[in-house]
Design brief:
The chain is an alpha/beta fold and 815 residues long. The chain is 42% helix and 21% strand. It contains 29 helices and 29 strands. The chain starts with a strand and ends with a helix. The structure holds adenosine-5'-diphosphate (ADP), aspartic acid (ASP) and magnesium ion. Residues 400-478 form the ACT domain.
């Protein structure tokens, strides 16, 4: 035989009950001899709790009672033929009246005992099982409703009763004997004590009922039908990438469910384990899927852990004091006390010095635990051998679980790296001696982020999601979006990276969408749905969302964003930027930014600060990291100046070329911003700093291209007038170069920690001789590349290549 248990959502609506009927009929027709256990319709147990509490406080409950009645009546109207409806309505109405009387009693007494509460809660399962059995009777006349409180015998621990095994076994066996060949619908969740008073088995306890019946009747399998595809690697409501686990051992399932995976109630595993009956967790709404099988032995999964679960609300109590040292009985006394008073200790850690014990409890038990400790250890406290503990609240437990963990070193390292990299502070750690589980206590507000980060770390082959906040939608920003849009599927497929742009801001508007802005229509979305831009607000919102693997992109040329970088790193967010301001300001700022990023384990990538998309910063860093020593760097890093000198040959005048460069949009509105060399100087400064030199911009020896008269001209027009007058000067330069078979180049140089930039003449043997268009070139002379320097050359400007460089940096984040 088989036990089929259906949870609240599976019997929550007319549509879902139809699915249940089909699964049960299928099994019955195949002669699998199913026994069905149903939960209350979804939401009903919570409503009953509410009503009981309301009654005890003298508040009305009849509105909710009507809701419950109507919820069931509605199903009857839709799923039972009219001519059979009446007796069912009558019976349900009688039960509702019964419930009403009980609630009235509670209201009169203004008192809700655990016993009365269990009686009230039992109606949920009684309603649903009676109702569904009557629906099924239309198709399978052998259907029969069973109130399990007559068969499951328990102690009197109302709300969380424990089974009396022998008696229960006898009663269930007798039931099966008298009801052979019947299709039984058995109420989950409820039992009764020796006086016949109704008890409940704990929230989620219908799973347990199924396992008890399965174990007594020697079922071939216990199937738990719910609304997800089995036990998943994490809570799917928090971790969207959680996936279904095909096989789990009883121990693994137990650990995962104990630490919060509520898809199955932890005690369920015990009866199944004792009789080695497999449990399957399956999806009522996708019955063709196999879901998860829980069995004696775990499988050899590809992953070192099976899953990550969590309890979102936990309090910890920390006991310290010299009185604990060497006193072997101390923790015994403490935990016996808590056990006796039914305080469930979720997790314990003890420092090796025995100076302190930290344990976690449900928040509702915390104050009581303190009072108990104060009474039990009164003497020790008075003698100052123990410090009166305090409760720490708003915490969560996160646990990684799996039997393979035992055989795989480095699991805790991986866990702590993922947490640390995302700035999540760990308050306490516990590793069970079984090594099936490592648990950490963290702040509650970090839980969602932690679960996702740890999930990404352990299931690395899975797609990793980067959450991007992009500032600046000019040429580079817009081009980047275009590239990201085009490459989205490719990245997902080939690099297992999903990039979601979740925040966009320009100087006018800003927009957030945690599910990812559609980059096919971001302009429209920003325009129609965006709020008024506010940089501080943008950054605060980004921090508040607390997303894992988060990246801030500064695609502006503005000074302001850089003032936030340090704060952003401190929030464990990586930065990718084409903006040079931050790295070329004071050296102290450069150093502090790099230091902060390193300390917080996040990335700071700015390849496009030098030579647009050309790999220059990366090459320099790789050389240094691999132990090479930089002897000299020579470079032409201004596309504009490069263009001007490359074309300053033959008959054209310098004046004409500058004019043309401006017309082509190669120069700033005032061409002196390029020809003055300041931008070039910034790039050299960044390279020198990355090469390990603590230099300031004032240390750079910046040689002029333009004569003084041009530089001091008061307007752009006047500058051009002066440039025309300086024709002679430039022609002389050009002629001198031509006569010697040389060309004019504006070259930056880093050597022995000194940076200089100057106009030079180079001949055909120099690597910079043949340069065309607006190309950049850089040569690294190093210990390894001494004879022939390492040269990088190519287009050093343009939106397409710059955005491509930002894109490459983005993909490298967290790689
Ligand atoms: P039922 O009403 O069928 O008993 P529950 O609500 O008790 O269902 O349990 C199923 C729910 O458990 C799922 O909808 C899911 O949101 C939640 N859940 C939490 N953690 C996990 C997990 N690791 N795997 C599967 N489901 C989980
Ligand atoms: N109806 C009960 C609850 O909601 C038992 C169960 O669904 O398993 O806790
Ligand atoms: Mg459940």
């Amino acid at each position: 035989m088989k036990v089929l248990k259906f949870g609240g959502t599976s019997v929550g609506t007319v549509a879902s009950i139809e699915k249940v009927l089909s699964i049960v009929r299928d099994s019955f027709d195949k002669d699998e001899k199913p026994l069905v256990v149903l939960s209350a319709m979804s939401g009903v147990t919570n409503l009953l709790t509410q009503m009981a509490e309301d009654a005890a406080e003298g508040k009305g409950f009849s509105e909710n009672l009507e809701i419950i009645e109507e919820k069931h009546f509605d199903v009857v109207r839709k799923l039972i033929a009219v001519k059979f409806q009446n007796p069912v309505f009558t019976k349900l109405k009688l039960m509702v009246n019964d419930l009403d009387d009980i609630l009235q009693g509670i209201a009169t007494l203004r008192e809700l005992s655990a016993q009365s509460k269990d009686l009230v809660l039992s109606f949920g399962e009684r309603f649903s099982n009676y109702m569904v059995s009557k629906i099924m009777e239309q198709y399978v006349p052998e259907s029969e409703y069973i109130n399990a409180s007559h068969y499951i015998k328990t102690d009197s621990d109302f709300g969380n009763a424990h089974i009396k095994e022998d008696l229960t076994t006898q009663l269930i066996q007798a039931l099966s004997y008298t009801h052979a060949n019947k299709l039984l619908f058995v109420t989950g969740f409820i039992g009764s004590n020796d006086k016949g008073r109704v008890t409940t088995l704990g929230r989620g306890g219908s799973d347990y009922t199924a396992a008890i019946f399965g174990s007594v009747l020697g079922a071939s399998i216990i199937e738990i039908w719910t609304d997800v595809n089995g036990m998943l690697t994490a809570d799917p409501r928090i971790v969207k990438k959680a996936f279904s686990l095909p096989i789990l051992s009883y121990t693994e399932a137990m650990e995962l469910s104990y630490f919060g995976a509520k898809v199955i109630y932890p005690p369920t595993m015990i009866p199944a384990f004792m009789k080695k009956i497999p449990i399957a967790i399956r999806n009522t709404f996708e019955p063709h899927l196999l879901g998860t099988r829980i069995q004696f032995e775990s499988d050899k999964s590809n992953y070192p852990i099976k899953g990550i679960s969590s309890i979102s609300d936990i309090s910890i109590i920390n006991l310290t004091g010299s009185g604990m040292i060497g006193k072997s009985g101390f923790s015994g006394r403490l935990f016996t006390l808590l056990a006796r008073e039914q305080i469930n200790v979720v997790l314990i850690t003890q420092s090796s010095s025995e100076h302190s014990i930290t344990f976690a409890v449900n928040p509702s038990d915390a104050t009581r635990a303190l009072t108990l400790i104060a009474a039990e250890f009164e003497l020790e406290l008075a003698a100052n051998k123990l410090v009166m503990p305090e409760v720490e609240e708003d915490l969560s437990v996160l646990a990684i679980v799996g039997e393979n963990m035992k055989r795989t070193p480095g699991m805790s390292g991986k866990l702590f790296h993922a947490l640390g990299r995302n700035g999540i502070n760990v308050r306490a750690i516990a590793q069970g001696s079984s090594e099936f589980n490592i648990s950490v206590i963290i702040s509650k507000e970090d839980l969602a982020k932690a679960l996702n980060a740890v999930h990404d770390a352990f299931f690395a082959e899975l797609k990793k999601t980067l959450y991007v906040f992009n500032l600046g939608t000019g040429n580079i920003g817009a081009t980047l979006f275009k590239q990201l849009y085009k490459q989205h599927d490719f990245l997902l497929e080939n690099n297992d990276i999903e990039i979601k742009v979740v925040g966009i801001s320009n100087s006018r508007k800003m927009l957030f969408d945690v599910s990812g802005v559609d980059l096919g229509s971001w302009e429209e979305a920003l325009e129609t749905k965006g709020e008024i831009a506010d940089l501080t607000g943008f950054i605060e919102h980004m921090k508040a969302l607390n997303l894992p693997n988060c990246v801030f992109i500064d695609n502006t040329a503005s000074k302001l964003p850089a003032t936030y970088y340090e704060d952003i790193f401190k929030s464990n967010i990586s930065i990718v930027t084409c903006n040079k301001i931050a790295n070329s300001g004071d050296y102290a700022q450069y150093q502090s930014l790099h230091e902060t990023a390193r300390k917080h384990g996040v990335d700071f990538y700015y390849e496009t600060n030098v030579g647009a998309g050309l790999p220059i910063v990366r090459v320099l860093k790789d050389l240094m990291m691999s132990g090479d020593r930089i002897l000299k760097i020579e470079a032409i890093l201004s596309g504009t100046i490069s263009y001007i000198f490359n074309n300053f040959v033959g008959d054209v005048s310098f004046y004409e070329i500058v004019k043309k460069a401006q017309e082509l949009g190669y120069t700033e509105p005032d061409p002196r911003d390029d020809l003055g060399g300041v931008d070039f100087m910034r790039k050299m400064l960044i390279l020198a700093r990355d090469a390990g030199h603590a230099i300031e911009s004032s240390d750079v020896n910046l040689g002029a291209i333009l004569p003084e008269s041009c530089l001091s001209a008061s307007s752009v027009d006047e500058f051009y007038a002066e440039l025309l007058k300086a024709e002679q000067y430039f022609n002389a330069l050009k002629d001198r170069a031509a006569a010697a078979g040389q060309v004019i180049r504006y070259i930056g140089k880093l050597e022995k920690g000194k940076v200089s930039i100057s106009l030079q003449m180079v001949d055909g043997t120099h690597p910079f001789y043949a340069l065309s268009g607006s190309d950049n070139i850089i040569s690294f002379t190093t210990e390894r590349y001494k004879e022939r320097p390492l040269v990088v050359k190519g287009p050093g400007a343009g939106a397409e290549v710059t955005a491509g460089g930002v894109f490459a940096d983005l993909v490298n984040v967290g790689a």
